[in-house]
Specification:
Largest sheet: 8 strands, mixed
Number of helices: 11
Strand content: 15-25%
Helix content: 25-40%
Order of helices and strands: HHHEEHEHEHEEHEHEHEHEEHE
Distance between the termini: 51 Å
Shape: globular
Structural class: alpha/beta
Number of strands: 12
Length: 312
């Protein structure tokens, strides 16, 4: 086999191609890769010229790999997997608490958990640099499996059983009502109280939606529930009197401007909570260092949550 120089081929260009294939959209791929759409498109075109293959069929409304492109993109994924494995093995010698660590979090946790945690991490691990991303559960699972994330902080689900994980803490749910809601007069809320048509839910894809439904009575079937695109939107819908919902306790902090418009009540029953875990790929050789990080995170369990014991 003749020697083929690789000077015109970069891992970054391969990442661009894989991102376009994942999202089937150049604009979203550019956003994920942190570059301009024009820059990403130009690099993909240069790679196509280098390979002498058209990787994608492009129209205004349609992006899809060509038959030849599909085969090469599959090989590109293998290249990225091998490159990430190389980095993981190299990092295992110095530990993940030095250098860059890419962590993903569910959006109903990240904004309320991370701000108070970051100064403590910087103080204890001065050589650690974090790249943080918020994603829905499905996207976290995919990104962690594909190696786009080193770690994920999220609630365990049926889709996370193939990851290594260690428990961090339990976060209780609280019921939040408009001030004039009939249930706002009760001192504590039961699971039966939740089965109402004015229960507000997040859209599909958010684990908080499934967690809220899981503690409703078994015969409750949501039909015409009002949906919110985010936890912030859910807050404003409650404050506007459009219904009530379950809010994780960490999201109640620093919301004085809205708490004057709502009533917060505890929910009776030990199931009114969610578990938060740290997860990583079983193949990652940094497991012992990740467990060390988990121990630190447990030591910094937020007020109002319950620290879980180290399973090991």
């Amino acid at each position: 086999m003749s020697y083929v120089p690789l000077s015109g081929l970069s891992l970054r260009d391969i990442e661009y191609v894989v991102a376009v294939d994942d999202l089937r959209n150049f604009s979203r791929a550019a956003e994920r890769c942190g570059v301009s759409q024009a820059g990403l498109s130009e690099q993909v075109r240069k790679l196509e010229l280098l390979l002498n293959v058209t990787l994608f069929e492009r129209t205004r409304r349609h992006v899809a790999p060509t038959p030849d492109g599909e085969k090469l993109i599959g090989m590109a994924r293998d290249v990225l997997t091998s490159a990430r494995r190389l980095l993981e093995v190299a990092r295992a010698y110095t530990g993940p608490l030095n250098g860059m660590l890419h962590i993903g979090l569910i959006p109903t946790l990240g904004p309320y958990y991370i701000p108070s945690l970051l100064p403590k991490l910087r103080h204890s691990y001065e050589q650690l640099s974090l790249r943080l991303s918020e994603m829905t559960t499905e996207n976290l699972v995919n990104a962690l499996r594909q190696g786009d994330l080193d770690l994920a902080i999220m609630s365990p689900t049926s889709t996370t059983t193939h990851f290594e994980q260690t428990l961090l803490f339990e976060e209780p749910f609280l019921a939040v009502f408009p001030k004039d809601h009939e249930l706002a007069q009760k001192k504590a809320i039961t699971f039966k109280d939740l089965a109402r048509p004015d229960l507000l839910l997040l859209e599909d894809g958010h684990c908080l939606r499934e967690q809220a439904l899981s503690i409703c009575p078994a015969n409750f079937r949501p039909q015409d529930q009002r949906l919110a695109t985010s936890l912030e939107m859910l807050w404003h819908m409650i404050a506007a009197g459009e219904g009530f919902s379950l809010i994780p306790c960490l999201a109640l902090e620093h919301r004085a401007e809205l708490q004057t418009l709502v009533t917060v009540r505890p929910i009776q029953g030990k199931e009114a909570k969610r578990t938060i875990s740290l997860m990583w790929r079983p193949s990652d050789p940094r497991a012992e260092s990740f467990k060390e990080l988990a121990a630190f995170l447990r030591s910094q369990t937020p007020e109002g949550c319950t620290k879980l014991s180290d399973p090991s």
